[in-house]
């Protein structure tokens, strides 16, 4: 399998239906859309294509460990009335990622370490249920 050319990448990105996102969105905006795709039970309710595409091709732009660290930062920084919901969605997205691409977590120790840091952050904040979601993720 060969890497796509810049033209192929541009064509693929241009063909995506990103809803409210424009063709050039920030990583935070993209992750927000991915997180919003999950309900509180962890069901991927909508934007399945966007979530799967993000998890598949993100490493063209940002390494997997950096993406996981970004989710860790979101987890730590989330506050307000939607804090619990957003933190659950972060755990569900990570769990989904581990289930869909277990090889990525086996091949990248830094990625596994970032997930472990998030799990520890959840335990430290008394959110054992969040940590358990990550512990039980199929790999």
UniProtKB/TrEMBL annotation:
CDD domains: REM. It comes from Alligator mississippiensis. The keyword Ribonucleoprotein does not apply. Coiled coil: none annotated. Residues 18-139 form the N-terminal Ras-GEF domain. InterPro entries: Ras-like_Gua-exchang_fac_N, Ras_GEF_dom_sf. GO terms for molecular function: guanyl-nucleotide exchange factor activity. Signal peptide: none annotated. Transmembrane segments: none annotated. This is RAS guanyl-releasing protein 4-like. Keywords: Guanine-nucleotide releasing factor.
